[in-house]
Amino acid sequence: MSISIIGAGNVGMALGSAFTRRGESVVFGVPDPDKYRESVSALGNGASVASTAQAIAASDVVILAVPYAALPTIAQSVPDWQGKILVDATNPLAPGLSGLVLGTSTSGAEELAKQARGARVVKAFNTTGAENMADTLYPDGAPMMPLCGDDADARQRVATLATLVGFDAVDMGPLMAARYLEPFAMTWIHLALKQGYGRKFAFGMLRRS
After folding, report:
1. Strand locations in the chain, DSSP E?
2. What phi and psi, each to the nearest 5 degrees, are found at residue 93?
3. Is the pLDDT of residue 1 over 90?
4. How confident is the model at residue 96 (pLDDT cuts 50, 70, 90)?
């Protein structure tokens, strides 16, 4: 499937690197393509960079790897997303990583879905650090990647992408489950940055047969 990543920061570049290493083509969308041309070209022939609008138009799957505050502008820049899969990899973080700016009765992903007319929004790639997106290899198993969305086909396609790069994709069902996934992201952030665990750990799911 065609993939665009909006944003070329740590998360965007980690996902782009993971996808291109496995043979996928990725278009990065950024406000100033020339600024990122060298770093994107280092990913190989499978990666290219364009304006945000061009990248959105180029692919069926668009991954948002930008600060949460940028979502309304991006969502509303397209009058009709026409069924594109819009993957929300963001978290509505409060200043200083002190928590989330919304939750309980809604989520960042649900608010995005209200603004992105005609998009099939899936929450994914938000619950772990960029290092785990670039390299999912752990000696005791695959890190889990929970995801949710109201469209079952969209969830399945995003689960396929998560599995492709080495995650154990876990289908959480409807988009309202993002109310659980965004606080779950804070668990990883709290352990990594506040409790001194560092960034070289991931959560996994244990199953009994």
Report:
1. 3-6, 26-30, 47-51, 61-64, 85-88, 120-123, 144-149, 168-171
2. -75, 140
3. no
4. confident
Range with the poorest average pLDDT among 98-102, 103-107, 131-135: 98-102
Longest CA span, the chain: 52
User: Cα–Cα distance between 163 and 22 in angstroms, integer?
Assistant: 11
What φ, ψ does residue 150 adopt, rounded to 5°? -80, -15
* Residue pair 179/107 in contact by the 8 Å Cβ criterion: yes
> How many other CB atoms sit within 10 Å of the CB of residue 123?
33
- Rounded Cα distance between 8 and 28, Å, is 7
Helix and strand numbers (H, E) in the chain are 8, 8
163 band by pLDDT with thresholds 50, 70 and 90: very high
pLDDT of residue 199: 95
Q: How far apart are CA 60 and CA 83, in angstroms?
A: 8
